[in-house]
Amino acid sequence: MKLFNVLVGVIPVFDGQLLITQRGFEEKFMPGAWGVPCGKIEFGETLEDAVKRELFEETGLAGNIREMVGYSMFLSKKGENELHNLQVNYLVDLVNDGPVVLDKSSASYRWIPLEKYDEFGLDDFTSSTVKQAVIENM
Q1: Which CATH number fits the domain that encloses residue 73?
Q2: Burial of 46 per CB tally in 10 Å (0-12, 13-18, 19+)
Q3: What is the pLDDT of residues 124-135, one digit of tens each?
Q4: Each residue of 59-116: pLDDT tens digit?
Q5: Cis before residue 99, ω within 30 degrees of 0?
Q6: Could you list the residue range(s) of the whole structural domain that residue 90 is in?
Q7: CB neighbours of 18 closer than 8 A, spacing ≥ 6?
Q8: Residues 43, 129, 29, 59, CA torsion sign
């Protein structure tokens, strides 16, 4: 079956630092990859509510949405289903920088300078997502 999937991507910043998380190594989709908190919108949920929920679920942190900075599209599979994913990306100012409490889907986290995101070996998808925020932040 072919399905359309809507997600939110959270680009969390605090004092010029970007919080990235590493997917757990047991995750089926992109295990061990570094990225930004992201997840599906729940039925009846607004994009903004999904951003705040995903941020809290994945990092234990709260933030204020600055703005929507763009979107990303990608194809993936879940079981026998083919997914066409639309990820709407938001720049979020964190209320504070910790403590970070990761959920079970993440193995680690790292703070990196937002303006130097391209020096940390992020994959092309994550780099293009973060670049949307860097352009809006300048």
Answers
A1: 3.90.79.10
A2: exposed
A3: 888 988 998 887
A4: 999 999 999 999 999 998 888 999 999 999 999 999 988 799 999 989 999 999 988 8
A5: yes
A6: 2-137
A7: 11, 12, 36, 111, 112, 113, 114, 117, 130, 133
A8: negative
